[in-house]
Amino acid sequence: MLTFISGGVRSGKSSYAEQLAIERKQAAQPIHYVATSPANDEEMKKRILHHKERRKEQGINYITHEKEVRIDELFDQFSSGDVTLIDCLTTLANNELFIDYAEGKESFRSGDFRKQLFSRLVHTFYTLQKMDVEAIVVSNELFFDPLSFDEATIIYLRWLGTLHQEIVKISDEAILVESGLPIIMKRRERTR
Length: 192
What we know:
There is one protein chain. The chain is an alpha/beta fold and 192 residues long. It has one domain (2-187): 3-Layer(aba) Sandwich (Rossmann fold). It is 40% helix and 21% strand. Strands 3-2-4-5-1-6-7 form a seven-stranded mixed sheet, with helices on both faces. Strand 2 (31-35), helix 2 and strand 3 form a beta-alpha-beta unit. It is globular and about 45 Å long. The chain starts with a strand and ends in a 5-residue tail after the last strand. The model has no long low-confidence stretch (mean pLDDT 92).
């Protein structure tokens, strides 16, 4: 089962996703927490620490996987019935799309590169949806503010928007979180 949760920055989407993961986990099984954000500045370090402290306070057994790209390489670590929480797709997509940017390369400008990456990521989430796990994917809604962006950001936003749509299509559930409140956008009948 694949659940897609999105919302604006500080909307409560991560807290909601963690609560949903706790509700769906089976008694003694841990929750696999796939963290995609690099701790590359002080603000992000504080946010990561806050998330870790919140999870620790819950008293739940989390197995944290810090994986900035290629999350599919973790799939063999998930067992039948596990709950897997991926936080977040927005950062994963950024990490993957701009993977060589720090080296002065701009692969993201290539339509072929974006198309291949898009296909790989859709396949990753399709595979996850078909696995016997409860997968919860968190992502940011970055499309509400009419701001002016540079060309790289516009490429990213358009690509991410299309990726969101494709992942929502294959998801069993799609939930928008606003001010901590979940709004169910899509829900298929649960089979378990």
